[in-house]
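[scheduler] slot 2 assigned
[scheduler] job type: sequence-to-structure, two independent chains
[scheduler] chain ordering preserved from manifest
[runner] begin chain α
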Amino acid sequence: MTTTNLKVGDKLHGFAITQITPLPSLRATAIRAAHPKSGAQFLHVLADDTENCFSVTFPTPPPDDTGIPHIMEHSVLAGSRKFPVREPFFEMVKNSMATFINAMTSQAYTVYPICSNVKKDFFNLVEVYCDAVFHPELKRDTLRREGHHLTLEDNNNLDSPLKVTGIVYNEMKGAYSTPESLVYELAGRGLFPDTPLGRDSGGDPDRIPDLTYEQFLEFHKTLYHPSNALIFTYGDIPTEDHFKFLAPVLDEFSVKEVEKLKEKNGGAGVPARESSGKTQAGTPVPPSATPTLQHSNTPIRQPRWSAPRRATHEYPIGKTEDDKARTFLVFSWLIGDMLKPDYVTEWEVLDKILLGNEAAPLKKALIDSKLGADVFFAGAGGSAYELSFHLGIKGSEVDRADAFEKLVLGTLEKLAAAPFEKSRVDAAFQQLAYETLEVTTLFPMRVLHGSNSAWPYGGDPLTYLRGKELLDACRARYTKDPQMFNRLITDGLLKNPHRLFVVLRPDRDVQAKADAAFAAKMAEKKKQFSKEEIARIAKEAAELEAAQGKPNPPELLAKLPQLKVADLPAKPRHIPTKIYHISERN
């Protein structure tokens, strides 16, 4: 196991070591530190691994459905103070040994990770990432390009219809056009209508155009500060080297209390997108009753329902497409707290018992029922800091909804009545152990994900980095109490009223109605502009499109850190191997 000479209380380069914890199952040591001047938090998982990882995570619970966390993720990667290059990371990929370089927006945080096996390359990428997140240019045109802007269908014809476009806007329109994505949105976020988890951090296309440039700048000013930053590193680069590199980046800032974000439009989340009068997924929260979005790490919990709810929605299909066997039926339960690792581990094991293979009892019951073509969106999972359980089928019919409900609840009642065969439970533990403990490709990213399963919500970042210990403890509890998993079914599912049943059915007319409503809205909006303003919209849109196709000037590209041949290891790393000869047996 990799160890360190650092001690709790040591102070180096403005950092103070607060905790040092062995992680035997990772053969690593976790070193936690604080940077008092800026307020940044730091975690290094020190391991004998040359694939080093860096990330900075910002808790970014969405204040509304405009997709501002997603748009900001794109925008900070569009040029910064030190590197005023459009899309510097695409340029860096051309000159890097990176094994991973990207950024992701989740329901409640945004993370910017990179991985590399070359130390110089690693710090080159970290330099660009830090400048991007803390000092982005964020020009007005950045929001217009990455988020949304008005244009004409034909910018050479001022009489052509007005429309909205933008990279994130178009991306989310595509996402909202597929039934699978809609199921994830409606059944997943639908459990949390009164909290930030019920809003679309990616952006609802109908709401994205509501985002103003002023709100865009305020979001960055408020949340993209080191006092709200969780800095993660993994690998064999000494912790002191990370401190030395990050010190001048963080020393520019002074610690501050991260402010509250004001919510707009009631923050109603999924229920605001009702597609039929049949929906009962929840009532939009009036602005006066909307909880204030605290941007501390304290999660805003969804008030539990007193009775199950049902929602019916439509998704578009073509006029000539067959609508038979195209319905999705999904049950979703809010079952608990993601910050309780013992409880979460029990549900992960139960997930494998019920659904882990084709012969698993719940999955087999769904398949044998012939109520749908296949099992879909099924199992336990984290919705940020809330734990949920989903059970769905696709390729079904609307009139099978009641039969599906009866089948699911009846099967669960039977499964809860008697302990599971020990062999089935042992197999579930083994399956989960393989998934949890196996060292796979991009393993540093898995460690990062484990840390971010608790850290952005005020939890211990090491909570889910103790996979073996959690599994061993769960197995010990099961040995003492063979009915443990049966009670989970009873208490977490059968007796749990916080249940949402989503029916998503195909509709040949819904897209035409939406397109007509949008066209009417754009036509009315266009009437508000003078001819001169329409001409300006067309001109600016054409210029923005033309600018996207222009290469970065060589003098700006030269500002990016360059990796040289001399920076590469003289020899590839030797990985010890043993060759075994297996003789054939007659």
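[runner] end chain α
[runner] begin chain β
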Amino acid sequence: MNSTNRYQAWSKWLITICACTCLVFSEDLHATEHKSVLILHSVGREFRPWNEYAKNIREELDKQSSWPLDVQEHALMAARSSDPNPEAPFVAYLKALSAERLPDLIVSIGSPAAAFMQRYRQQLFPTTPMLITALERRRVQPSNLTENDAVVAGRINFRFLFESFLQIAPDTRIVAVVNGSSPNELYWEEEMKRELKPLEDRIEIRWYDKFSFEDIRKQTASLPSHSAIFWFQMVVDGTGVAYEGDRALMSLDATANAPIFTHDDAFFGREVVGGPMLSARVLSKEAGAVAVRLLGGEKPDNVKTEPIGFAAPKYDWRQLQRWGIRESRLLAGSEIYFREPTTWDQYRWQILAALALILFQGAMITGLLFEHRRRLYFEVEAARRSAELAHFNRYSTAGELTASIAHELNQPLGAILANAETLQLMLKSPAPDLNEIGEIVDDIRRDDQRASEVILRLRNMLRKAPSKVTDVDLNEIVRNTILLLSPLAAARKFDVKTVFFSEPLPIKGDQVQVQQVLVNLIVNAADAMSDIPRAERTVTISTARDGNFAEVSVADAGPGMGRDKLKEVFEPFFSTKPQGMGMGLSIARTIAEAHKGLIWAENKISGGAVFRFRLPLSPQ
């Protein structure tokens, strides 16, 4: 090969490499080029059915587009009215919005948006490609289309739609058409009247465009039997009230006494029976593909699509059941949605698992019943042992009171003996003084009652009986406890100071158990003052009300307790006394918690400790 041929070969190779590189670079540049899309809604961004079309088109753009997209959405609120004046500010807004950069594509959703863009196209976007979609083919005016417009439209056959419903509900005699009174809705009312004229001898069609929506609800709530409702749109009712979102259709369904059918599956899924309908998904998929072609530079007038008709019929199983429509009457090729599966279909594996577990559970239940009986036995036994321990604690406390109680009993018994001897002497006299004898007898009775009260208080504290919850006054329990311990106060040489709440403090509880708590606290207070001078030994007992609780506090004048021992003092077997068992305060806490109350200890600033016992007041 000579040098010329080699040069030509190398030149071709370099050209090929450069071309491939440029192609790859061009594809990368194309893939990263920024594109802007303006979506114009006819009424509002949440108005059905058009909001479903806009949502699906955006999803298709995200799927099919190879460019980063900047999508802006705006709503033409003036579509609710025939007055063109509200459009001027919106035109100015769009013009200002695109002053620096025009969008690469305009997508109009619904016929009002398409008509608006065609009216103001020369002012706003004279050369920008526009996709007109989410509308019926009759709302496309060919004379207003430019070379920069492409159309993806649907096709509605109202007569076929009504006849399809009459096939599944052949007894229908009245169809109420729910439609608004905006310009677009009034246009479709005339179209429906024209197409449905051949059915007038078969059904009565009622029109409600002049009514308020509330009146429409009342009318459809009282339709005769064998009626149906056709839902088209409700942009604005006959009184000018605007509606958006699902509110109107949901409100209508809540009171309607007849099945509802419609023309667009954007309304399908809750209130509508179903049937042949326009498919928002199918039309949006086609619209998304056309939008990508226009963004890629294809001329709009070269993009031609056929109007998209009804999709395969589909029905809501729940509505069929609600209105008693038999599946055998449905159109051929129909799909049924939201069918509730049978119990076996829905819970097959759960049922099998349950059956597999039944034998295991049977064995477990037997074991659990046995364990429950054992646990109940031990709980009862634990409660009995706890009661016995509390009873033992009362006996232990009574043992400490033995000497002082004996001393207190000796006084009335000695007085009784002295009065009896005096009475015996007086009765031997020839002329006894009967008045003086009566006074002696009264003294004997009084001293006997005094001794009986001492014994009764001790018996009440020591009695072993099941817990008995009654309505009692906490002030009264405190008074009785102080009387019971008055011999101990005399023997231990300490004073008792009381401060009672001015009103009764009714509680629900076991009087003996509450008294046992107070006895423990008072005895502990006396023990805490054993090493201080006699003149300083004072136990202060006070009652008070704190919201819905009654509270009694027992304060001593002793040295107090260390901060770390304030929390431990209620623990079992913890005691600050060398001879103590460490069970009194633990039992007191158990009794307090059983009465849904609290007990705690604090150190006083002036010296000594104070124990507080709080119980809930009775509801009355």
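[runner] end chain β
[qc] chain β: Residues 343-428 form the longest helix (86 residues).
[scheduler] slot 2 released
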